[in-house]
Specification:
Blueprint (H helix, E strand, L loop, with lengths): L7 H32 L1 H9 L3 H29 L5 H10 L10 H14 L3 H29 L7 H15 L2 H15 L3 H12 L7 H28 L6 H17 L8 H12 L4 H14 L1 H23 L1
Protein name: Flippase-like domain-containing protein
Keywords: Cell membrane, Membrane, Transmembrane, Transmembrane helix
GO cellular component, one term: plasma membrane
């Protein structure tokens, strides 16, 4: 008689996810190594060595300011939704979710929802609008930053306007409950499947009405602009320290455009796409590969990978606290 092992099926997606992440990381590293080999190891090493420890700390500090500003926005939105959580809880959830930044399917949001369910008893359906508004806040802030940078930067960036439009359109749709619910209904009619999932999605879309509060939306947008602006400014500083000052607004435009472009590829954490876009745009500005490659590697190290490091530190604290609350 054949025995079925129910635990074997879930292992396959996890294994595929790990292989996908490993392949993406290897592809990025391979591309950077290829560029370095074609440029010259000595030049790359000299450029990286030119960045002083205090400068590296400054870059990490600006990235930390971004994460803290967005964690505060998460708390603001959680309170507006009515969640009975305090600032420490919300910051722990938000920062801990960064541990999943390069996992497929936005697992970071899902694990935050799991912690909230354990600590508050709220279902994922009730807390889903929080994750949606957080994502919309990022898109709105980055879209506005990119539009402002393109307007003020000399020469602009080819392709920036469509990316800006997509980011702002997605943010608008995500913050309009009736419009989002109508789009969910249209998607269900076109697909004709998964009625329960679409019903939950419609319910989550309608619950976004709780966020239709001018002061809340304004403060959330201001926190997003401050956070992402801090990281973009760190890129400007890094380029200046490496002798490739392309101007503040041009640096902001390149950073935000590359980050958004990486996200549009669908790759976890924008791996591959963001790095390629950043190197390409810097090259178009006349920055030599001996500078653009290490600058890209360092800014991704002090932003994406620093966020993951913070997430890995906060994750066990959030997991332990949620288990204790559950039980």
């Amino acid at each position: 008689m054949m025995h079925l092992h129910p635990t074997s099926a879930p292992c396959e997606p996890r294994r595929r996810d790990r292989l996908l992440i490993a392949a993406l990381v290897l592809a990025v590293l391979g591309g950077l190594v290829g560029l370095v080999a074609g440029t010259g190891w000595d030049e790359i090493r000299d450029q990286i060595g030119a960045v002083r420890p205090w400068q590296l700390c400054a870059l990490l500090g600006l990235s930390l300011a971004n994460y803290l500003a967005r964690a505060l926005r998460w708390h603001l939105l959680a309170r507006r939704l009515g969640l009975p959580t305090d600032l420490v809880q919300d910051a722990r959830h938000y920062l801990g979710g960064f541990a999943m930044a390069v996992t497929p399917g936005r697992v970071g949001e899902l694990v935050r929802m799991r912690w909230l369910r354990r600590e508050t008893g709220w279902s994922v359906t009730r807390t889903a609008p929080l994750a949606l508004m957080d994502r919309a806040g990022d898109l709105a802030a980055m879209g506005l930053l990119l539009a402002l940078a393109v307007a003020l930067a000399a020469g602009g960036i080819a392709g920036a306007l469509p990316v800006t439009g997509l980011a702002l359109a997605a943010a608008v749709i995500a913050t309009r409950p009736a419009l989002l619910a109508a789009l969910v209904t249209l998607a269900f009619r076109a697909l004709g499947r998964f009625p329960r999932a679409f019903a939950r999605a419609r319910g989550a879309a309608r619950s976004l009405a709780r966020f239709s509060h001018g002061p809340t939306l304004s403060l959330a947008l201001a926190l997003g602009l401050a956070g992402w602006g801090a990281e973009a400014f760190s890129f400007h500083l890094l380029l200046g320290w490496m002798g490739a000052d392309v101007g503040l607004w041009k640096a902001v435009a390149i950073f935000v455009f590359a980050t958004l472009a990486g996200g549009l590829t669908g790759a976890p954490g924008g791996l591959g796409g963001a790095e390629a876009a950043m190197v390409a745009l810097l090259t178009l500005e006349g920055v030599p590969l001996a500078v653009s490659v290490p600058a890209t590697a360092l800014i991704r190290l002090t932003t994406l990978w620093f966020a993951i490091a913070i997430g890995l530190a906060a994750f066990p604290l959030a997991e332990r606290a949620s288990l204790k609350a559950q039980g």
